[in-house]
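User: Can you fold this complex?
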Amino acid sequence: MTTGSHFKPDADTIIQAAKRINPYINRTPVLTSHAIDRLFDAKIFMKCENFQKVGAFKARGATNAVLSLEKNLLTHGVATHSSGNHAQALAWAASLVNAKAYIVMPSNSSKIKIAAVKDYGGLITFCEPNLASRETTLARIVQQTGATEIHPYNHENIIAGQATAALELLEDCNDLDFVMVPVGGGGLLSGTCLAVHYFHPVTKVIAAEPEQANDAFLSFVNQKFIPSMNPNTMADGLRTSLGSLTFPIILKHVHKILTVREESIVKAMRFLWERMKIIVEPSSAVPFAAIMEGKIEITGKKIGIIISGGNVDLDALPWMKNA
Amino acid sequence: MTTGSHFKPDADTIIQAAKRINPYINRTPVLTSHAIDRLFDAKIFMKCENFQKVGAFKARGATNAVLSLEKNLLTHGVATHSSGNHAQALAWAASLVNAKAYIVMPSNSSKIKIAAVKDYGGLITFCEPNLASRETTLARIVQQTGATEIHPYNHENIIAGQATAALELLEDCNDLDFVMVPVGGGGLLSGTCLAVHYFHPVTKVIAAEPEQANDAFLSFVNQKFIPSMNPNTMADGLRTSLGSLTFPIILKHVHKILTVREESIVKAMRFLWERMKIIVEPSSAVPFAAIMEGKIEITGKKIGIIISGGNVDLDALPWMKNA
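Assistant: Here's the predicted assembly.
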């Protein structure tokens, strides 16, 4: 890793990303609740990326990456392997410019997610449900088609795109003490770090992660990359390991990484559904779970939370029996 | 009924109601979805009263009614019988001015709703689960305490308060062709009618109702009051009969009342959860169910829908087995 990597993408790259994607994505609302503020004696601002295109912040990075590609590359399409929101986001972003999106999905992906990728026009190739099969299948497709691989997080244009969520949050909310985001591969977290660093550096960035997928926490406190090993969390967006681009940014700019128990994720998710009347997916509830666990002192503070997405299977909610 | 009753409350009463309640209630957002608009080839604007205080538009009317009371009356408190959102709304509104709220609730009310009323400081008296017991219990409490009864919908200040939701919607969305609202007792519908009549009369007001609680539809087409008989719908906010104040307004100003099947309500509710990522209660999904059933031609039109509330029991969703 080069010394300069901590500051890539730079401020102008993020501003250009925002200009590039703004015609296509939603300016998502920032919601507040007096009842919640009173309960925690704080001011909490929720940036609702569950209302984003494809139901998650991933639309930002994918759109930025696709629209940044040169035309001669775009004609061959884009490709990725993903069973989650990035698959949908890339298929959707490619459809904006009539480009092909080759999506490698594990054969055990949920029917809902497969249907969503197809709806957005994604061309799906199924593979065995393991990383080796995902990578070899993707490599084969890239070779056959000449498509450009768009990694879900370890990609400068993805990071710059995800940074625009925090950019908007900072525009809408003055003087936040903290911005809290969940961390999986670190695309949203590193983008948030950079947006805060360039545009409101007194704000502290706090990440939150499931205890049962605490690789980012371990990497952060040990100051060396530790991969995700057998993550066992319902927060399916947070099972991945950090990347070579995202980790150095996180190491340099994150104030703290908090971990939460699985039962706290369910509790926080349900609390947000009941009190805010918004649908948030388990991964999105993780920062609020850290607040509910009392892992961070927030009395009198102003806290922005990026609610990362709202894609859940309504037939398998974590509080349902037999879910 | 007097001839003039069709125009009560008047325009200024609604504007005064808005001024009176604005410091206390939420200015709820109007959400849109390009995907939904494309699907129906129309422009749909959802006024999200599920994000309102107490999770429903009822906070508007209750606040207006409580704040309109003279101080010497307020000292004796307010009272109502309700097992639903009005109970919570009145308890909450009374708490704003430290007034007592006596709430008569049927003994079989859901634990969640009882807890919510208690949370807002409501003083609950339980009664038998039938209208006669509700009314006699309420009459006794009013006599004992000197509290002022606040009817959930057949009350001028309630109607004026509910009218402010449509007033805001008209401010935010120009030139709506239709405004659609669900109809139960008609407080929201009659308020919406008056706001549209005074402030944007070319817009047509369309009501929607469950087939299995179609008393408003029958009253409307027969032009005479027909009470709700054994309503059997999951839309628990829409089981009540129209009132002597609300019915004449509805008769004069409503363009159409559409009815929908129970399975359409579930389908519409789930569709809004999945596509909009917002929690809406069954009653709130009824207008959108009418659109999904094709009960109204909306191609190329601009339609406002008032999403009336978001109070649901997350352990008993209509698509759950054994719910």
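The first strand of chain A starts at residue 30 and ends at 31. Chain A has 13 helices and ten strands.
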